């Protein structure tokens, strides 16, 4: 039968247990309060201070009612203004439209990879209503665009992607909470209060934090971060650092470029690319059909991604001597050779059509400073310096990246990571002027156009 009284010893023991429980509760509350104090806002609720647009339009990410509102267009990212290595990041998000797509990138590079709108990073998926055997809408984690990561659990298809242990995300129209812990290359994701996915041995493991726009209207709020101690990663494990790059293309419009009626039917923004049609209307007389920037530039470094879109066709084209002149036979006739030609274009520097970094399918490769190396009045050393050192082009239809450095009267051109023109002198090149994408009548597409000022 139940006891109807307690000894003094029983009462003392119960009192001690109650005190201990109360102490633990107070410790938990105090620890939680201390933990909260170590977090700081990554979004102030008023504006985008601390964030930088990478490859989006001015209204892709805006602030409304204490939230970051992402339109989903164009595909691209907005990133923090500095690197982070070890940290706990918390945020809330909700999709406004079913099956919306977005993402959170950690340890990201500052610029997109060649030909893509995405940076190298580890992505924490923010997706709605799309679940298959290989991916879910509940917190997948995976490396993108050259990053690497080992998933904490094997993927059914062998992918480097960790699928969540359970489905915990709320559907479009409802808020979700992510807690992402990143430490020394390990990443763990808690979805609405429970750990569900993770990875380890990530590279990079220090870099920018990005919010991704990928077609779906999505809201973000209550973004905060707590930095954690840890060893400093090696350069090979660290993302690139931004060097004050400025985008010259917002992914949706030709804002910042000079347009006029004569360009209609030629230049357009198509599929978030600057598109030059290969089947253009008849060429009007007296009109400049190249696409020029509104701004002028002095010393600069320029990034331009490009790909020729024409179908390669066998054509007889001019051939060139080793020192850059058009090759002629003993009778003075131009010596031609047959090549697979997919088109021709170029980049004009400082408002000068002579200072053109060429894009074409000649065996020498793209990057030559065409009008300079063909100028027989120039010294041979100058002409030779304007000829590519190596053929670095990818095949037609594939993306290529120029990095063009202009300082004073000298230019260096890198193509797909290879230096093809090294410190070539361009006599009489203007000290300042706009940049243009050349219209040679052939189909070509451009994206990821960035510039940084070297004049200061």
What does this structure look like?
The protein is mainly beta. It has two domains: 41-241, Sandwich (Jelly Rolls); 247-453, Jelly Rolls (Sandwich). It is built from three helices and 30 strands. It has helices at residues 8-38, 370-373, 380-385, and strands at residues 40-41, 51-53, 61-64, 67-70, 76-80, 87-95, 101-108, 121-127, 141-144, 148-151, 176-183, 186-191, 194-203, 208-213, 218-227, 246-247, 257-258, 267-270, 273-276, 291-293, 300-308, 313-318, 336-341, 345-349, 352-359, 400-407, 410-415, 418-425, 436-437, 444-453. Strands 1, 3, 4, 6, 10, 11, 12, 13 and 15 form a nine-stranded antiparallel beta sheet that branches. Strands 16, 18, 19, 21, 26, 27, 28 and 30 form an eight-stranded antiparallel beta sheet that branches. The model is unreliable at 1-5 and 24-32 (pLDDT under 50).
Structural class: mainly beta
The chain-level mean pLDDT equals 93
- How many distinct domains? 2
Per CATH, the class of the largest domain reads Mainly Beta
Radius of gyration: 29 Å
Fill in the CATH topology of the largest domain.
Jelly Rolls
Q: Give me the number of helical elements.
A: 3
Seen as an oligomer or otherwise, the chain set is single chain
Secondary structure: helix percent: under 10%
- Proper CATH architecture of the largest domain: Sandwich
Largest sheet: 9 strands, antiparallel
Question: Any key phrases for this structure?
Answer:
456 residues, mainly beta, Jelly Rolls, 2 domains, nine-stranded antiparallel beta sheet, eight-stranded antiparallel beta sheet, 3 helices, 30 strands, elongated
């Amino acid at each position: 039968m139940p006891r109807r009284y307690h000894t003094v010893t029983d009462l003392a023991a119960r009192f001690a247990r109650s005190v201990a429980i109360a102490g633990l509760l107070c410790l938990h509350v105090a620890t939680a309060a201390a933990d909260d104090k170590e977090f700081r806002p990554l979004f102030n609720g008023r504006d985008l201070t601390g964030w930088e647009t990478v490859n989006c339009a001015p209204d892709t990410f805006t602030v409304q009612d204490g939230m970051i509102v992402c339109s989903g267009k164009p595909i691209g990212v907005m990133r923090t203004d500095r690197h982070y290595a070890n940290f706990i990041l918390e945020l809330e998000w909700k999709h406004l439209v079913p099956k919306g797509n977005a993402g959170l990138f950690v340890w990201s590079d500052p610029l997109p990879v060649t030909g893509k709108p995405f940076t190298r990073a580890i992505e924490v998926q923010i997706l709605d209503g799309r679940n298959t055997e290989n991916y879910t809408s509940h917190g997948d984690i995976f490396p993108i665009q050259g990053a690497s990561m080992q998933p904490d659990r094997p993927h059914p298809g062998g992918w480097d992607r960790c699928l969540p242990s359970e489905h915990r995300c709320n559907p479009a129209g409802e808020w979700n909470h992510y807690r992402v812990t990143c430490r020394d290359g390990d990443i763990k994701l808690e979805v609405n209060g429970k750990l569900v996915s993770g990875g380890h041995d990530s590279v990079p493991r220090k870099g920018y934090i990005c919010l991704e726009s990928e077609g779906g209207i999505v809201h973000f709020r209550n973004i905060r971060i707590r930095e954690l101690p840890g060893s400093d990663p090696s350069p090979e494990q660290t993302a690139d650092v931004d060097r004050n790059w400025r985008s010259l293309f917002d992914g949706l419009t030709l804002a910042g470029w000079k347009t006029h009626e004569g360009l209609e039917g030629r230049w357009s923004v198509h599929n978030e690319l600057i598109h030059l049609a290969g089947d253009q209307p008849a060429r009007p007389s007296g009109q400049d059909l190249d696409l020029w920037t509104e701004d002028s530039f002095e010393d600069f470094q320029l990034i331009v991604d490009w790909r020729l879109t024409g179908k390669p066709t066998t054509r007889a084209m001019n051939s060139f001597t080793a020192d850059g002149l058009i090759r002629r036979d003993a009778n003075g006739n131009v010596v031609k050779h047959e090549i697979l030609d997919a088109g021709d274009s170029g980049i004009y520097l400082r408002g000068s059509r002579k200072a053109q970094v060429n894009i074409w399918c000649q065996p020498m490769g793209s990057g030559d400073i065409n009008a300079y190396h063909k100028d027989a009045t120039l010294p041979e050393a100058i002409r030779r310096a304007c000829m590519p050192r190596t053929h670095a082009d990818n095949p037609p239809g594939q993306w290529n990246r120029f990095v063009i450095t202009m300082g004073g009267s000298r230019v260096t051109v890198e193509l797909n990571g290879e230096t093809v023109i090294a410190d070539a002198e361009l006599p009489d090149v203007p000290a300042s002027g706009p940049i243009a994408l050349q219209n040679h009548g052939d189909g070509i597409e451009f994206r990821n156009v960035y510039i940084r000022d070297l004049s200061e």
